[in-house]
Each structure stands twice: as C-alpha cells, then as structure tokens.
Amino acid sequence: MIRRHFAAFFQIVVLAGILLAAFRCANPVMPLGGEKDFTPPQVVHSTPENGAVNFKGRTVSITFDEFVRLEKINQQSLISPAPPTKPEYRIKGKSVQVRFHEDLFDETTYTLFFGNAIVDLTENNPIEGFNFVFSTGPVLDSMSLAGTVELAFNRKPAEGVFVMLYRMQPDTMPLDSLPFKVKPYYVARSDKQGRFRFTNLRNEPYHLFAIEDKNNNLLYDKGSEGIAFADSIVFPVFKGRPVADTAADTVTSAAGRLKQKRIVDSLYYASMPLKQLRMFGEVDSTQKLLRADVPRNGLLRFAFRYPARNISIKPLDSLPEGFGLIETASAKGDTLIWYFRDGKADSLRLVVWQGDKPTDSLRLSLKPRQQTTRRSGQAEKPNELQITTNTSGQRLEPGATFQLRFSEPVVNYAMRDTNVFVRNKDTLYNVLEFRKFDKVGLIYELVAPVPATDENIRMIIPDSVFFGLNGTVNQKTELAFKIPPPAEFGNVKITIVDLPRSPLILQLVDPKDDAIREMTITAAGTYNFEMLRQGKYRLKAIHDGNLNLRWDTGDVVKRKQPEWVTYFDKDLDVRPNWDIEEDWTIKF
C-alpha cells in the first residue's frame, strides 16, 4: 500500500516538473549573468535615406536593429529650419516616425537632431547626438557654423541653451525685435562645454543669437531668460568632415565606435572658426523704489533697485519738533535709512526725488509690526542698546581696529571708571577709550589701549556708557577676541604684464566666485593681496567701461554687450606664512 502511494506521489511530482518546464519555455525571460550590452541601436533602414534629396512626403521613418524608445524627446529634439507646428514623434515596431503637420518648405535642407533621446529598450543605450538630414530640393546645403556660449559674469559654459540663426531677408523686422517676435530659421543646442554647431546651412549671412528659452517657445522672454548675441553678421563656412584613419576604422566594439565618433567630431569642431557668445541676463535700468518699511521703532528703510546716488526723500509736511532725524545709507548704497525718535509722529507723508524730479509719493505709518529676536524668540528690550563687534569667531583681522556697532545712532558717550582691559594675563583698569568712527554714530572704534597681534584680549564695558537716539543705553558687556599672528596668513603678489583694457576691477575671489578683496587698476604693474586666510582663490579681472566700480550686464535693444570678464588660468593655493608671486598677461 505504501509503495502504491509513493509511486503515485512520484508520478505527480514528475508531471508537475514537466508542466513547469513547459510553462517556462512558453514564457522566455532575460537570462541572468553575462556581459552588459553597451551597443546603441543601429539604423538599418529609413524613409527617406539619411542625406536624401527631393523628398516630398510628410513622414520620416527611421528603422533600427532592435526595439527602441524615446526619452525626453520634446526636450532633446530640434528641427532646423523649425516647422510652423511641432511635429509628432511616434514609435512603430522598431521604427521612430516623425510626422509633420504641414508640407515642408521647397528646396530646403532639413536637419533632425535627436540628441540622446533614442535609446534601446533593454539597457537604455542612447545613440549619442544622432542627426538625420534630407532635402526637399535637388541638393543638400553644405555650409557649417560653430562656436561657444558662456556665461558673461563668470565664464562658465552655458549648457543646453538654444542657439539661433535668422536669415537676412528684406521683409524681416528690425534686428532688435528678432528674438522677441520671430522664431529662428535654424536652431541648435549647446553641449556641456557650451559648444554648438550648425551643419547643412544655406550659403548666406545670418544674425546669431542664443537664449535660455525656459518655456521652449523659441522666443526671448526678457527678464526671465538669459540671452547672447553676435555683434555683427555671421557667415557659415564649408568644412569637409575629417576622415578617420584605417586603424581606428577597424575597431568594432561599441565603446570603440563611440570613441572614434567623438574623436572625429572633435577634429571637425576644432577645425572650424568659432563664434564666441557671452550670455547675460537683462535688467530694467529704471531706478525704482522697491520697498519702504518700518522694521522696528525709530527706523525707516527705503530700498531701491540700484544705488540711490541721485535720490533724496523729503517730507511733504514739516517734521514734528524733536523728531531727531538722522539719515544714512547701506554699504551698497541701495537702501536709504532714517533713524528718528519714536513717538513724535504716527505717520509721515513723503516724496521721493530723483535729481530735481519727483518720482514717487507715499504715506507711511511709523508703527512697526511686533519684532522678535532670532535666538530667543522674545521681544527685544525697548531700552537696551544692542552691541555687536567686527570680530569673527572671536578673531580680529590683522590691521583692523576693534569696533563696536550699535542698533541705533549713539548720541552721547561717557566712559565710566569701572572699565576693564585684560591683555593675556595682565589686567588694566580705567584705560578703555572709544571714539565715533562714522558720521551718524552707529560705529565706535577702540582708541586705547591698542591690542597687539597674538594677544588674547578681554574687556568689560560698564553699563550706561553709550546712549542711543531713543534713550536706549548699553548693558554691562564683556567681550573677548584675539588678533592672530601674521604667520597664520599668506600673501599674493600679482604682476600685471599687459593691460589691454582700462580701468580694471581686479578681484580675488573664493571658490563660490564671491569677491574677498578687490581694487581698481589703471596701469600694468605689481599689486598685492596681503594677510589672506588659508584656502584656494582665483584672480578675476572686470573691464569697468563706465567707471561705476561694478560689473554691468548687456542690453539687446541697444546692442550693448556685457562688460568683459576674464580669470587667471590657475588657482592660487594660499598657505600660512607663504607668499605667492605670479605674472599675468590679461587677455579678454
């Protein structure tokens, strides 16, 4: 009995194994292991052929040796010249179809650029930089144009921007309106190095622009997109594609073919004269009051778009008695600041003047919203004069004087005889002395004693020494800092060999391109940046053409290019107690 049951069970197991094997045969799966496929899809057939002439249809069909899919086709694909309506892209079997909605232009060479959008179905291997060319006339246009696009302010490559060519036709609208209202005849896109290339162009002159085109409408939207333009008309050139050597042609692997393609492309690109475009963001040059507010009691701020050099603010009515107005400006000059005695008026009517012309009027309440301190979340004490210093991490830069900075102008100062000054382990009493550093009393500097380098300094300032405009007084304050020795710093000595443009703003910038030090120079010579903290820096030169001590952007309508910028060709690795000396022949 047991044998019969075992035999029946064995037959069931065998039958299940046979059925499972049959099921697996009917449903093939991808085998495990083996080398990964790096081979991109290969074109086996197309209608029309790549490079064909006299094409009259509306659909281009390209068939590959394996199944493919389209990845971000709307972002990567470009067609030159651009059709009125964007075509439809479809996958049909192993083919990619491009279906145009209108008849194509007569006797025109079309270039379909797919970027890296065509990838195989299994491994996502792209056909890199795939182009397809055909003509609706008897010949293919054969002219080319290439160049680079970089960001004007920092010379970094402008990747993925649209580079556009406009034909010079008699009925074309004015040049300064082209990128705003007219779509280009030819369009290309810059690569990671900011390079672009047009091929199969008509042999005629063009206007050349480049834009960010964030909304993909092939038009320039001022204020939200960067733009670049060529100063003059550009002419394409004829360049035959370089022929690869025999040894390289024998490489059959996918990696080898890709490497060979890049070599050939690089040779072709390097053999062409290059157009250099500098991309910038336009700004509205009209001066404007952006904001007027009362951040706290006794303080009014007027923020402007640009430094308010020719701006004045005048009350429409007489100021109340005892208002105590003290006027100053921010470090950049784009914010005008009023300090006043609180409680003398509830509101003010004001007029903003630019030169001798009124530009704005406003009525402001002088009552701020409730303010809290960042650290504690509690309201500030109304009668306490806040004090900060110009130290960083309890360290004072060598050569700098120690400064106290106040939350409102100090109108009276009287040092009391309970002050303390500690130098290392030596304690001195009643020796502290400060004096006003600025015109309005927001900064006081230490006069005596004078701290020396490599000393640990501690001081105690008694309460009620500094009196603010609104009756505020300082609390008892204990401060500590140290002036590090010169051996902790490095120096840079740069000799400008040639000065092709003048004047220049010479900057020492950090890795984020923020200026650490700067100076204006008008002649070749040797210039020093001393007492620098350890770190990597770069030298940057800006041609200050309009003498306003800053970099200025361009203007498309006025055909004004942004101011030129260039960098020294290597980083400066500043080390403690180390001097760096370099020569720089500046070229723009």
Structural summary, described in words:
The protein is built from 5 helices and 42 strands. It is mostly beta strands and 588 residues long. Strands 36, 37, 39, 40 and 41 form a 5-stranded antiparallel β-sheet that branches. The protein has a 4-stranded antiparallel β-sheet with strand order 1-2-6-5, with no helix packed on it. Strands 10, 13, 16 and 17 form a 4-stranded mixed β-sheet that branches. It is elongated. 23% of the residues are buried. Mean pLDDT is 87; it is low at 1-7, 18-33 and 242-255.
Write the topology of this structure.
Blueprint: H1 2-26, E1 43-47, E2 59-64, E3 68-70, H2 73-76, E4 78-80, E5 88-92, E6 95-99, E7 109-115, E8 118-120, E9 130-135, E10 143-151, E11 162-167, H3 178-181, E12 186-189, E13 195-201, E14 206-211, E15 227-229, E16 237-238, H4 246-249, H5 254-270, E17 274-279, E18 289-296, E19 299-304, E20 311-315, E21 326-329, E22 335-339, E23 347-354, E24 357-365, E25 387-389, E26 403-406, E27 410-413, E28 420-423, E29 426-429, E30 433-436, E31 443-448, E32 456-461, E33 466-468, E34 477-482, E35 490-498, E36 504-509, E37 515-521, E38 525-532, E39 535-543, E40 565-567, E41 572-574, E42 579-585
Parallel strand pairs: 10-17, 35-42
Antiparallel strand pairs: 1-2, 2-6, 3-8, 4-7, 5-6, 7-9, 10-13, 10-16, 11-12, 11-14, 14-15, 18-19, 19-22, 20-23, 21-22, 23-24, 25-26, 26-31, 27-33, 28-29, 28-32, 30-31, 32-34, 35-38, 36-37, 36-39, 39-40, 39-41
